[in-house]
Amino acid sequence: MIARATSPLRRLWPLIVIASAAAVGWWWYGDLLSFEALAANREALLALRDSHYAATVLGFTLAYALIVALSLPGASVATLTGGFLFATFPGTIFNVLGATLGASAIFLVARSSIGASFAARLEGSEGVVKRIKDGIDENQWSMLFLIRLVPAVPFVIANLVPAFLEVPLHRYVISTFFGIMPGALVYTSIGAGLSEVFARGAAPDLGLLFTPSILLPILGLCALALLPVLLKAMRGGREIG
After folding, report:
1. What average pLDDT values come out for the chain (241 residues) when binned by 10 residues?
2. CA-CA distances (angstroms) from residue 135 to 73, 84, 128?
3. Does the global pTM surpass 0.70?
C-alpha cells in the first residue's frame, strides 16, 4: 500500500525538480539572458573565447542546453551569442547541439514522469482523439520534422508533445537536430554580424526569419516533410475507392 501510494510521486520528482529549477532561473537569471547583457559583456566574452576556446565551446553548449531544458527566456539571445562568438560556422553546430541536448533532457524527464501514463490514456481513448494519435503514430518522422520547422510552433511545445506520444528517443533526437537547423542557421548568421550592430548602438533584427527570402524556403521544407503524409493519404483513398 505504501509503495503504491508513493509510486506516482517517485515518477514525478524529476519533473518537479526541473519545474522548480526553471522557476528559480526565471526569477534569478531572466534579466541576464538579454541582448543588453550580451552587449555589455561582449568584450569579456571575446577575451574568454580567445584565451580558452575549447572550454568556452563546452561551457556555451552546456549553458545553452540548460536554458532549453529549463525553458528559460533568452534562447534567441543564446543563439545570437553562438554566432557572435564562433561565427556562422561552427556557431550553428554549437547552437544546434546545445538545443538538442537540452530538448532531449526535458523530453526524457517528461516521458519518464507523466509521458507513459498519458500515452496509455490516449491509446485507450476512442473517437477523434484516438484517430489523431494513430495518425501521428503512422507519420512520426514527418510530424516531428514539421513541428521543428514551422516557426509558429513554440519550442517548448515541440519539446514536450513527442514525450506524450511514445516517440522513440532516436527519432526525437534526429528530427530535433536537423529540424531546428534552418532557423538556427538564420539566427546564428545574425549573431555573427553583431559587431557592426554593436558599433551602431542598434539591436539585431530577429524578424529576419519571417522575411520571404528566408521564410519561403523553410515553408518549402515543411511541405517536403508533409509530402509522405499526403502520399500515404492519397494511396489510402485509392485503396478505399
Report:
1. 50 66 65 80 94 97 92 86 94 97 92 70 60 71 87 81 85 94 91 82 68 70 72 56 40
2. 33, 42, 10
3. yes
